[in-house]
Amino acid sequence: KFGHSSINQIHQEIYDYAHGKQSEIEELKQLAKFRRQFLADVSHELKTPIFAAQGFVHTLLDGAIDDKKNRMKFLKRAAKNLDGLDMLVQDLLTVSHMEAGDITMQKEPVDICEMIYEIFDQMEDNAEKHNITLKMNEPRYEEIKVIADPQRIYQVLLNLITNAVKYSDEGGRVEVSLNEAGSKLDIRVKDNGIGIPSEHLNRIFERFYRVDKSRSKAIGGTGLGLSIVKHIVEAHKSEIKVVSSPGQGSTFSFRLDKYKPQ
Ligand code: ADP
């Protein structure tokens, strides 16, 4: 009964058990490290707009309120920073819900073509201001339906198109294209903007990761847009891909299931 092989077996079991515990401990350590880093990143990101708004408000209280020429300017800057803070908190809540896994996708047939034109309408003023053209390979009246969570997919497209405009130079061109790929619809957002150096490509989907910190900060944004995009696209059982080269532009793409009426 206590033959050689069973002792070996017991040894093996003890070894496996210890090894399992060891990797559990490693996992917990990783998780703790990850949490600490997240908290540090969040605090840092929150501090910037809070300090800025605080600075403008205190300057006003300290007397700048009587300076007719500057008071409006200071108030507007304080408001801008508070708006940024609001956006950041909203994005943070979205990310934390998604990472906790408590967001379920409400999938239904969605006319994606119409949705893209809606986003174009919403962004028209901003694009015009920078002389950027928004283009689509399908006409507005074309009905192209996919199965998706409409609000979440709207957020994905809005983030990708906003980035395409944000990271383009004056006179740029942003093109969205829809192409059938079997039972899927391939969706692409292409710009001819500043592009992304290859060494940054697999990191841009991480939270708060920015290629050029000062430029991205000046342009505005929470640094969470692409991590939200990745979460939502993956929750639709797809993958977000990017092809880019500096000075040439970037193309982000993903696929969704086409809607097949019964
Ligand atoms: P942000 O709020 O900084 O735009 P995102 O998560 O949306 O945050 O994007 C992360 C980073 O990826 C950006 O700061 C920018 O450096 C880079 N990036 C995203 N989209 C583009 C694009 N279309 N062209 C060039 N760089 C981009």
TrEMBL record:
Keyword Cytoplasm (UniProt): no
Catalyzed chemical reaction(s): ATP + protein L-histidine = ADP + protein N-phospho-L-histidine
Protein name: histidine kinase
EC number: 2.7.13.3
Superkingdom of origin organism: Bacteria
Keyword entries, A-Z: ATP-binding, Kinase, Membrane, Nucleotide-binding, Phosphoprotein, Transferase, Transmembrane, Transmembrane helix, Two-component regulatory system
Enzyme class per UniProt: transferase
Molecular functions per Gene Ontology: ATP binding
Keyword Transmembrane helix: yes
Domain Histidine kinase stretches: 41-260
